[in-house]
Structures are given as C-alpha cells and as structure tokens.
Amino acid sequence: MKPISLPLPSLRLIQFSLLSFLLVFASCKVQLVSNYDMELSNEINNTAKKVDNFYLTMQEIAADKRQFVNFSTSYIGIEVDLNSLVIKNRVRPLNAESTRIAEITLQLWEKYKEEHKKDNTLSNGLIRLNKKTFSDMFYAMQVAEEGKKVSNSPNP
C-alpha cells in the first residue's frame, strides 16, 4: 500500500484551518453562573451572624421573657437584611439558584416570625431548630457564592 501524500498547499490549508479553529475555540468561554461578589459574600456572613446572635440571645433569656414584642425590632432589622440579600441576588444575571436560596430564607424568616407572634413565645427546642435551619440556609448561600469564585476562575 502506498502512503497518502497531500499536495503541500492542501496540507498548509489544513494546518491553518486547524490552528484557526483551535484559537477560536480556546478563546470562547461560556459562563453559566454570575461572577463571585465578595461584598455580597460579606453581607451573607454578617446577616448570618445577626440571626445567630438573635437566637442565641433569645435562648439565654428565661422562657417567660420571650414575648414577641421583646424581639420585634430585631425581627424587622434582620428581615431588612434578608430583603437586601434577595434584591442583590435578583439583579445579578445568571443567578437564579442563589436568588432562590435567599427567597426561601426570607420566607422562612417571615414564617417563623409569624409563629412567634402567634404563640408569643418560643421553646428552647424551637429556638435550636430555627437556628439550625438558618445556619443551613446561610451555609447554602455561602457555598453558592464560593462556587462562583471557583466556576469563574481561569482553567489551568
């Protein structure tokens, strides 16, 4: 069998085409998530600290002093921070998952606030459960944000 030999101009054309394709392909980057936002990450952390402080403070107070009225100002302040997280996530492109986590967190906050208002107290068990729930939600927010840092970093 005789080896196939291409004329020199055809070989150069193939090499040029292949090189062009590789350059075009290498320069393309598809971004499926928003960019990492350190300011938002810090805000998530600060809000998580406020929620943690809220429940730890409540836990240290005697059960008969846990009336809703004693915590309504704190509920409002934290709800403002959660609303801010939702809005900041909504306006970012390619950010549906993080937005949904923030929305669920806000919905849970509102639900637990209404339960406290209705019952006018919270047991130690509910305080621990609520604290754990929000700890998990803020963890999910931070993981989602940190994932954006990894996802958008240049490939080695």
Give the C-alpha Rg.
26 Å
Average residue pLDDT: 87
Runs in which pLDDT lies below 50 for 5 or more consecutive residues are: none
Would you count the extended β strands for me? 0
Number of domains: 1
Biggest β-sheet strands, sense, barrel: none
* Helix share bin: over 70%
If helices are DSSP runs of H or I spanning 4 or more residues, what is the number of helices?
A: 5
Percent of residues in beta strands?
under 5%
Distance between the termini: 43 Å
Structural class based on helices, strands and sheet pairing: mainly alpha
What is the molecular shape? elongated
User: What is the chain-wise order of helices and strands?
Assistant: HHHHH
Explain what this protein looks like in three dimensions.
The protein is mainly α and 156 residues long. It has one domain (38-151). Helices cover 73% and strands 0% of the residues. The chain has 5 helices and no strands. The radius of gyration is 26 Å and the shape is elongated.
Short description:
With 156 residues, the protein is mostly helical. It has helices spanning 8-27, 38-60, 72-90, 96-119, 124-151.
